[in-house]
Amino acid sequence: MASTIGMMDSAYFVGRNEILTWINSRLQLNLSRIEEAASGAVQCQLMDMTYPGVVPMHKVNFDAKTEYDMIQNYKILQESFNKLKIDKHIEVNRLVKGRPLDNLEFLQWLKRYCDAVNGGIMNENYNPVERRTKGGRERFSKSLQKNSKSLQANNVCNISSTDTVGVTKASVGYNFVGPRQGRMNETVGAAHSSRDYQALLKEVTDLKLSVDFSEKERDFYFAKLRDIEILCQTPELEDIPMSIAVKKILYAADAKKSALEEAQEYMRRSNHDGTE
User: Among 129, 128, 131, 61, which Cα is nearest to 96's?
Assistant: First the structure.
């Protein structure tokens, strides 16, 4: 299947915005630029979504910043291709440079491949957020256990020193907050900040998509008006009343006032003069 996707395939005419929308909707991400997917982690998860369980997601590094870490992600992706017998060589050295065109081309191919496998239908049973965090849960759990033991040891020392002095913090008016409660407060605050950040990212992405759409619409209608202008300027047509009326509308300097009435009045006078 991969070998049948040639350079003239319609896959390579899919635009940047469509690719970003596809990635963000499938993986619940907020990418705004193609080069943000240069680390290879996104591509690994797109394959994991298409073939659940084939990609060892616990090995994929979504925080990859250096070329070395990115190359490790692409090695995982290439191994998955080999396992699935997908005849596609990944140009790793070009992709890790973060060049938009190289990454766009590879993502265009990947979208075409994934859509061919699943018919363009999203797997509703696939939880992308859970799959991304699954590899980090065990490490977080171990870290939490180590921190808990450390806190217990600190508490024992604090109690001993308090008994020795014979005065507790409460007795001198302190409102003491334990390490565990303080850490919980920090976690809750971080969660709120993360949600706010994600909401802002989504809003920025939506605004960028809206601007891109508006620019395309503007260019489309400008091209139509330019065609009309060129047509009205041809020697055979430029002096007829209809062309002159159209140019009155095109060249109207007052943006607040419509030139339609003036053009219609000109047409009426021309028709009246023509009948006499």
Answer: 61
Q: What stretches of the chain adopt beta strand conformation (E)?
A: none
Question: What single DSSP character describes residue 66?
Answer: S
Q: How far apart are CA 38 and CA 70, in angstroms?
A: 8
Assess whether pLDDT exceeds 90 at residue 251.
no
Separation CA 135–CA 215 (nearest Å): 41
What is the per-residue pLDDT across 7-45, written as a single tens digit (0 to 9) for each?
Answer: 556 778 899 999 999 999 999 999 999 999 999 999 999
Give 70's contacts (C-beta < 8 A, 6+ positions apart): 38, 39, 40, 64, 95, 96
Relative orientation angle of helices 41-50 and 100-118, to the nearest 10 degrees = 10
Q: Which two tokens stand for residue 118?
A: 């699943």
DSSP 224: H
Q: What pLDDT, in 10s, does the model give residues 95-139? A: 999 999 999 999 999 999 999 998 888 888 899 999 998 644 333
253's tokens:
């300097």
User: How far is 269 from 180, CA to CA, in rounded Å?
Assistant: 87
Residue from 235, 238, 257 nearest 247 by CA:
238
Q: What's at 221, amino acid-wise?
A: Y
